[in-house]
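Next comes a concrete protein, fold included:
___
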Amino acid sequence: MSALALRLAGPLQSWGASARFARRTTETAPTKSGVIGLLAAALGRPRGAGLSDLAALRYAVRIDQPGTRLRDFQTAHHADTGKAMPVSERFYLADAVFVAAVAGDDDLVRTLHAAVRAPVYLPYLGRRSCPPQGPVDLGVRSTGDPIDALKAEGWQASEWYRQQRRQDSLIALIILGEGTVGNRLDGALRDQPVSFDPRHRRYALRSVVCTSVDVPNPDFSPPTRENRPPVPVPRHEPETLLSPMDGP
């Protein structure tokens, strides 16, 4: 058993688990169905192909940089009639960075590793309008537990984000995984892929647990006279020194 680690970062991401009709929401972290879809695209599998081997992979994701939630409104028209479709409300995560891991049979993981390095179809982060920033491949790890793989991974947040958090050399990151951690269940998501066939997409419920891990901040430096933050300058408000005028 081994695990494949992936860095999922880009200007925009959108990972829907309950998006329907004109309101397309996003989860706070990549869904299993979204990452399995990315891997299936890298393999060049048609949408109607079987998913049993990929769906059986164990999955976990770590939130390294939560990003900012954005809302957008989009319009569209029917190609044949030109009739306007309802305005759709779509949500995205901007400037977010995640590390995902899938674990399973060694041969399958090696095949997936080769696919993400030379994908048949370009990967995207939940939606086709959300390309990744740089390579998604972080390599193969010799563990069958995706949570263990994420605990050993360095902090993948953007440099500017790490520099804003120099106050501590250890950063607690949240991991969402499958199964139980200490026999605790934190919730469920309908993001277990069953079929990506556009005529009848199907997803099953998947149990989700939450844990955390401390990782070192490579941009940490203890405060010194040279890098100490500047003392804020008080606002100049001379009118506050004036006494109120007496009445006539």
The chain has a mean pLDDT of 85. The chain has five helices and nine strands. The longest helix spans residues 32-43. The first strand starts at residue 2 and ends at 13.
